[in-house]
Amino acid sequence: MQFIRDYLRNPAAAIGLLLLAAVLALAATAGLLFPDDPLGLAGRPLQWPFANAAFWLGTDHSGRDIAAQIFHGARVSLVIGFVATLIAILIGIVVGALSGYYGGVVDDVLMRITEAFQILPNFLLLLVLVAVFGSELNTIIVAIGVVSWPPAARLTRAEFLSLRNREFVQAGRTLGLGDLRLIFGEILPNALPPVVVYASVIMAVAILLESALAFLNLSDPNVPSWGNLIGGGRSVLRDQWYVSAIPGVAILLTVLAVSLVGQGLNDALNPRLRNR
Amino acid sequence: MSTVLSIQDLSVALPPGADRSHALRHLNLDLRANEILCVVGESGSGKSMSAGAILGLLPERVRAESGRIEFDGRNLLELAPAELRAIRGARIGMIFQEPMTALNPLRTIGDQIGEMFRAHTRLSRREIEQRVLALLADVHIPDPPAAARAYPHQLSGGQRQRAMIAMALALEPGVLIADEPTTALDVTTQAQILKLIRELQERRGTAVLFITHDFGVVAEIADRVAVMQHGVLVEHGAAAQILHAPRHPYTRALIAAVPPLTPPPERAVSAAAALRVEGVSKTYRSGGLFTGRRVVHAVRETTLELPQGGTLGIVGESGSGKSTLARCIVRLLEPDGGAIRLGDIDLAGLRGRALREHSRHIQMVFQDPYGSLNPRKRVGDLVAQGPIVHGVPRREALRRARELFELVGLDPEATGRFPHEFSGGQRQRIGLARALALQPRVLVADEPVSALDVSVQAQVLALLADLRTRLGLSLLFITHDLRVAAQICDRIAVMKNGQVVEHGPAAQVFADPQHPYTRDLLAAVPGRHWNPPGEALAERSVVRDAA
């Protein structure tokens, strides 16, 4: 309760939560409001928003309902955001925990691997992965997760380095706890808050990465993602700019929501900032 | 004697949501020229807040609500920040507890002392330089020119505190505020610093407001004493009166809780050894390919024997290797050589699963009551954790945890709470319950009471002594505090530079120390000539009888 009160005292965080709830509402009601295939032809192409009561956000260059694509696209973006983040955080935590806990050779090897991922710009690496493994949605989600984990690993490692010699960990060791219990039972719960906060950054970036892929026509063309819609609108950008702008605003608001929520979590979890 | 600083009816309000509404309530205190006034109290008594209020250095959201602080005909509480700055340092000097954090690590000592002159005077560079060297000589730092060029980390703790004192006294302030200036120091260094403060105070006629929690220090240095409890001044008067004939019950209780330096009569201790440490060594190596290698022999070839059902105290100053030895014994550290024999098993030779199985017979109680409990687990689970790992069913382990809570004097209903809901003394009891959950034969306690207030300290010591007899435990007790060691230990081993220099029955070591280092240690104990008054001693013996 205290935590929720701390969180909501920050107006930016409250707005973020509201926006995120709105995106979730879009995703939840997509099937009810637009039961038809959002990628199916619906009417005359390139109708402006509010020109036709049937298509209140207009239609795109091939006559598909933009509103339907925005609603269904919310699902795709959220799935990409959540699943890719989950993959990245899981890899990051395991690598960072092992590296920070054991140190020495294990640390050296794992950190060199992490650096190998970090020296490549992650969008470039993503392009390579998509080029090799194809551009099906599941592949893309995994690929985004695989390019996003190194910062999470470094963060977890830093937390472990400062926690592993604390007295409560030593106490666990004298009780006869094994390494796995010490890592996951004792240290990890204490190391988690900053990593959870960082997850919001990964999630925002994951949504943007997918949009960027779609803009280059490298995303899965068979799902109604916001990125695909922007990519499709590229050819009519000068006259019918709304085709790209509407999903663009949707992405902007979603990423903003996730970032604000992350920032709010950070402030609420950090007791030193509480009274500022 | 004239009053130089007068606190009149001062109340300091805490922010809403704190554990009480006021840090200080209607405080009246006069500091006179040429005297040392000790403000004594336990944590949370408001003793540091009173110092902060004088210098306008109260924490954020804490403010002085009413009252006056009269200094030099002016009320310090009403001064503008700029006026207050002119007084701070120049007219009222301050010494802090931890010299390492109070000094800027990136600037030399000479530079930082010189800062005082640059900020408050118009002396030339050369004059400042000479003043700094004279000051460093005044505080008896060996080789002042070298110390002036040194950075804080290049000096020892005692030398850093001397430099801090030089800085505080640079402009010959009429008032010096010292907030626990010796608490972070070793006992021999503490004795030197106390002597230095007394010497400088007498030579310059300074009025010193000395804040401390330690009645030994009070006995050593105070002219007058003010005792505080929960933000209220409960008693004040001449040092001799407070120390020998305290009137207020709280003062009496505090003095009664100070352990006397003489050990109680010897107990009969079995000749059999519960634990034998044979030739254990531990060496730390640091540095790498390109930097100079540093080798520290933390523990060298140490041999000790812990009698069955007895308490062996390991005493020594910081860096003596006592904590390293304790950590080698419970195998948190890997000893380089030697044997640790528990019964007929050599723990030093065991690895992995076998080690985990056998090391349950030696458990440890840690120093820091805040850091040694995982903040994210319920305390019942913390206590049940050990048995669960060793195969006891969860339900059974939790039931046992409730019994252990009762054993260490906590409410068994409290097992569902989190560590932050307990006080320091209660947390130390939880740590004890956790260690006892595995039914160990040997308990290693690493400074288990040094983070606690003196009254709580007495309770925890009594509990340890009680459990020792009831459960037939053998206790290895690590401490830097000779008073504490005198109370609980049957045998004492004195460590210095990784070696045991003296080893014998407690009564003998205290009455007739053989090694010069032991004599130095004993001579440095603050207030060693002060015997708490008879009435207080009577209360103390109640604690000891419980032991």
UniProtKB/TrEMBL annotation, chain A:
Transmembrane segments: 78-102, 123-147, 195-219, 240-262
Pfam families: BPD_transp_1 (PF00528)
Record-linked InterPro entries: BP-dependent_transpt_permease, MetI-like, MetI-like_sf
Subcellular location: Cell membrane
Keywords noted in UniProt: Cell membrane, Membrane, Transmembrane, Transmembrane helix, Transport
Origin superkingdom: Bacteria
Chief localisation class: membrane
SUPFAM superfamilies: MetI-like
UniProt family annotation: Belongs to the binding-protein-dependent transport system permease family.
Protein name: ABC transporter permease
Species of the source: Pseudothauera nasutitermitis
From TrEMBL, chain B:
Keyword tags: ATP-binding, Cell membrane, Membrane, Nucleotide-binding, Transport
Signal peptide: none
SUPFAM superfamilies (UniProt xref): P-loop containing nucleoside triphosphate hydrolases (SSF52540)
Keyword DNA repair: no
SMART domains in the cross-refs: AAA
A biological-process GO annotation: transmembrane transport
Family to which the UniProt record says this protein belongs: Belongs to the ABC transporter superfamily.
Entry protein name: ABC transporter ATP-binding protein
Organism of origin: Pseudothauera nasutitermitis
